[in-house]
Amino acid sequence: MEKAVHSSTTSGPAIPGEATKTGTSIIDTAASAVQSFAPVNQIHQHLCAFHFYSYDMTRQVEAHHYCSHVNEEMRQCLIYDSPDANARLIGLEYIVTEKLFMTLPDEEKKLWHTHEWEVKGGFLFMPGVPGAIQRQDLDKVAKTYGKVFHFWQVDLGHELPLGIPNVMMAVTRDGQLFHEMIQGKS
């Protein structure tokens, strides 16, 4: 089941600096015609979920994940504050199977979260993808664990990524996610 989202992060402050000049755009276009973007071109999936700061559950943000498979046991995702072209890159997430998670030391496991409740509750989903197709992959995702770092505290209105990276967590039970973050949609 897909959910409609309410985002407080996509209308954040403008990023300081001059607008991109035509000359810069021309150079970027020329460079992109001859350079390889192999790692970025491996991105094949858009997942949307909600994260909260590991030390402050009241700070919740929408997180758009753009993921690639490293192999069948691991994915890596770039996280943006929206799916829009001007979205800000705010973090990253590593996703591993339960098999790999179980090999981690106990101290390390504390930095990871399960995706089971998010998927089963419809709070981790694939925007725009029909339910039957989503379900095939999300059944796999439900059995994984994620380790998330956010570098940009968009919920505080920061114009730039300030401070140290933050370990983030995901909802794992009822009552954690603020109702205003997400609204049901059939």
TrEMBL record:
Residues 1-12 have a biased composition (Polar residues). It comes from Microthlaspi erraticum. It holds the Pfam family DUF1264. It comes from the Eukaryota. Residues 1-21 are annotated as: Disordered. This is DUF1264 domain-containing protein. Belongs to the OBAP family.
